[in-house]
Amino acid sequence: MGTFSGELCEKNKSRFDPLIMKLSQIGKLTLLKKEFSELEPSKSTALSQEQIFEYLDRKCGGDELFDRDIGNQLLDRITKDPDGCVTVDQFITVFLEAEELLRGRLTNCDILADQYKASKSKAETKLRVFRQTELQNPNGLMNTSTLAITIHGARLKTNPEESQPYFIEITAGDFLTRTKQIEASSSPTWKETFNIDVTDQEMQVKITMISPETSAAYSTTLGLDELRDQLKHELILNLSDNVGTIHLTAHWIFSRVQYMTDVITRLEGLIQSNEEDKAEFERDLNALYRPFPSLRAATAVIANDDSISRDLYLEQTDDGEQYEGRDIFHEASWIKISHVTITIFTILSIAIHFERFNHADLLVPIFYGMVCALSKFSRVNMLRLISLLAFTLIFDGLWLAIYAKSWWIDSGLDAHGLERGLRRCVVVLSSLHFFLKFIVLYVLYKLMKESESDPSVQAEKL
């Protein structure tokens, strides 16, 4: 059985227009007062707990009793008189507050269900794309598997007066790097991040704090087993010789396919939990309505009146942010859009190349094809591709400015005008090619942003 813990009388103002809510509450208040008017006048002023339960049981009809758990929670919210009695108006007020709270929670469950299902749909779309593009090495890791380590600082047990300058050295297989050196301190702080390519899931990362003055070295080891959930972990590791601890953040992405599979599993768990919560709230609300069928009918009329409260709530979520609808481009993935635009780009490049050489343009689809084949949609590769495309864009702009006019008006040596017509065609195709490059640049930029934010940033949000 659910509870009404928290502030029962707190209104969900973000869900309902205040005027509509006020009118509906007035109607329910009038209806309940009419229901309670059946009591004898002597009992309508103040009622004991037994009298209230006796009345509610009678309204339920037959051998069915009003839910005592809900009834006790309602009465606990009322300030009673010295005799432990409450007025009818007090009980009706708390009753309506409980009804409003439960209906608000049900509406919230519906909105959460929509959000979870939309997120799951997007995750499933991404999973299909990753399954097509992700390549793995013989150790079962994707080729772009990366471990990101941020060294925040250390806390040493030494006396501050005996502190020494330190730097951190990180080794993992063939990887070796170090932080900057920090002046003498018992709590040195670095806040430096390093990206380590991981090719073996059994790899161990050794983190050593070294003093250049005394050559003292204190180390610790980080394994990958505790990072297999592909979420960001904040860790405090003990240094050797019990000299102190080191504070770091580690985030290992070894498979986008596995990551998105885990995301979908978590979303399915949230959907199931939300459905269970909704069923519990519905049971409580049905128990609340049981003595007053007319109140349930009145509420249904209000709810079906153009779905006022539902439509208003769909405008925003609990934190006031707009509810995000379907993003067609995101669901289609910028990878697919880039495939289309690069294909058109390649066709135009080849057609133009027969009349005027543009080798740089032909390098763009070749490099893009290599990126796709190796599944190396990294920020560095995207920047290289964008830079190459920008160079060809400048070259095309100069060609159009210098030669396009002469190619258009020059009749050439062919008396039949065939060369002239061909050159005009090249000018037209070059112009289309020039403007298409702006579109391709934008698509590659969006693809770069998508590759940056997926999956590490999503892991942090979840």
Descriptive account of the structure:
This protein is an alpha+beta fold and 462 residues long. The chain is built from 15 helices and 8 strands. The strands form 2 sheets. It has a 4-stranded antiparallel sheet, with no helix packed on it. A 4-stranded antiparallel sheet has the order 3-2-5-6, with no helix packed on it.
Shape: flat
- Work out the number of β strands: 8
| Helical content band | 40-55%
On the 0 to 100 scale, the average pLDDT is 78
What structural class should be given to the helix and strand makeup?
Answer: alpha+beta
Continuous helix count: 15
Largest sheet geometry: 4 strands, antiparallel
The Rg value, from CA coordinates, equals: 34 Å
- Identify the strand order in the major beta sheet: 4-1-8-7
Q: Report the uncertain regions.
A: 4-23, 302-332, 413-418, 454-462
What is the strand content? 5-15%
H/E element string? HHHHHEEEEEEEEHHHHHHHHHH
- CA distance, first residue to last residue: 29 Å
